[in-house]
Amino acid sequence: MADDDRPTVRLVAHCRRCHGWLLSPRSVAEGIGPTCAMRERAEQRAGSEQTLTLFDISERAA
Ligand SMILES: [Zn+2]
């Protein structure tokens, strides 16, 4: 009953958003890649503050 805290299943994971391989332990723990995590956060913000969109966040040069 004193099993390891970390299930070995967690060593292999796909991004829940783009289904790509998660390489870093942190990404595996979060279940999402760093890029997708950023986008997801931005989308959640865009949902609450509807004035801000992904396009506003990206560069609007020229
Ligand atoms: Zn991803």
List the helices and strands and how they pair.
Layout: H1 25-30, H2 34-48, H3 54-57
The structure holds zinc ion.
Residues 15, 17-18, 20, 32-33, 36 line the site of zinc ion (ZN).
**Bound heterogens, unique:** zinc ion
The coarse overall form would be elongated
Rg over alpha carbons = 16 Å
Quote the beta fraction: under 5%
H/E topology pattern: HHH
Percent of residues in helices: 40-55%
Content-based structural category: mainly alpha
- Give the CA-CA distance, first to last residue: 62 Å
**Total helical segments:** 3
Mean pLDDT: 78
The tally of structural domains comes to 1
Based on DSSP secondary structure assignment, what is the total number of beta strands?
0
Uncertain spans: none
Q: How many strands, what sense, and barrel or not for the largest sheet?
A: none
InterPro entries: DUF6011
Pfam families: DUF6011
Model description:
This protein is mostly helical. The chain has one domain (7-61). The chain has three helices and no strands. The chain has helices spanning 25-30, 34-48, 54-57. The longest helix has 15 residues, at 34-48. The protein starts with 24 loop residues before the first helix and ends in a 5-residue tail after the last helix. The mean pLDDT is 78. The structure holds zinc ion (ZN). Residues 15, 17-18, 20, 32-33, 36 line the site of zinc ion. InterPro entries: DUF6011 (IPR046053). Pfam families: DUF6011 (PF19474).
